[in-house]
Specification:
This protein has helices at residues 2-17, 23-32, 49-57, 61-73, 82-94, 98-110, 119-131, 135-147, 155-167, 171-183, 191-203, 207-219, 227-239, 243-271, 276-279, 289-292, 297-300. By secondary structure, the chain is mainly α. The longest helix is centred in the C-terminal third of the chain and has 29 residues, at 243-271. The relative contact order is 0.05.
């Protein structure tokens, strides 16, 4: 019985002290053990162009897409050949890969050296990739149906794809969808929805979102009218290079300055005892100038398919 206890104690001691074995002894134990291999410095080297060709030819989708990108950019010593890029993207697209479909659609939408543009096929690929959850593809499918690029103009379909892209966080889609809700294009006019979409686009840094949100505040559409906020948003958008917003900023600033100057004179006239004739409404029923001179929405708001 005593022998068993002693053996156990020695074993336990060995376990406790195993972390303190000298480095030299540990190295020697590795060298003498045929099962354990000494660690080696492993460096991951990317496959060469020839290796990529071989792997792509064996059907690896990721390598097919990578090789296609090299053919488009000339990276990794690959010659720039859009036709070869399209060939590999087609192979990956036929297997249903959304990224390959999107990249091939871009090539077909714009065309390239040795590759004729085909907007109709591009839209088909965009739509397929969008249905798989590809954000950019959803946006370009919407753009095609919105403006009739390669397909018959269909604003209802455009709205569907804009919504899909907007739900995935695509900023330009939020802006364009907001404009469609504002204008009531193939959808019931919804100023609150337009305001919300412009707000989201503005928060994401979109200069068009900022400009259009400014227009909503200036007009009091979908929110309480606030010309001070409108001016701030126009200024922010103009600072980002939006010339449309710069025009709105200059116009609104002039209106506010003129209003500020006119206010003291108006108060003085109101306090004058015999000034009733000066403050009477126009006999022809002309609307209040502040309402009559509001600029049309097409002059204030706008958008860009590439914002």
């Amino acid at each position: 019985m005593m022998k068993v206890i002693t053996k156990f104690a020695v074993t336990a001691g060995a376990v406790i002290l195993s972390g303190l074995v000298p480095a030299a002894s540990w190295s020697q134990s590795i060298d003498n053990d045929p099962v354990i291999e000494a660690p080696r410095d492993a460096v991951d080297t990317p496959p060469t162009f020839e290796e990529k060709l071989k792997i792509a030819g064996e059907g690896d989708i990721d390598i097919q897409i990578s090789l296609a990108k090299d053919y488009l950019s000339g990276d990794n010593g690959t010659p720039i050949r859009p036709v070869d890029a399209a060939r590999w993207l087609t192979k990956a697209s036929e297997k249903g890969n959304a990224e390959a479909q999107f990249l091939l659609a871009n090539l077909l939408r714009e065309g390239a050296k040795g590759l004729k543009a085909n907007e109709k096929n591009a839209v088909t690929l965009y739509a397929s990739a969008a249905d798989k959850g590809h954000t950019e593809a959803a946006y370009w499918a919407a753009d095609a149906y919105h403006y009739g690029k390669g397909v018959k103009k269909a604003e209802i379909k455009a709205i569907g794809y804009y919504e899909k892209a907007a739900d995935l966080g695509h900023v330009a889609s939020k802006n364009n969808l907001g404009l469609m809700y504002l204008q009531g294009k193939s959808v019931d006019r919804d100023l609150q929805a337009a305001f919300r979409l412009f707000s989201d686009a503005s928060k994401s840094g979109s200069s068009w979102g900022q400009n259009n949100l400014g227009g909503m505040y200036e007009m009091g559409w979908g929110t309480v009218k606030d010309t001070a906020k409108a001016l701030q948003l126009y200024q922010r958008s103009a600072a980002a290079g939006n010339t449309h917003a710069a025009t709105n900023m200059i116009r609104l600033r002039a209106v506010l300055e003129a209003t500020a100057k006119a206010e003291p004179a108006k108060q003085e006239t109101t306090n004058t005892p015999n000034a009733a004739s000066d403050t009477a409404p126009a006999a022809d029923g002309t609307p209040d100038p502040d309402v009559n001179n509001q600029p049309a929405e097409t002059q204030i708001l706008g958008g860009s398919s590439t914002d």
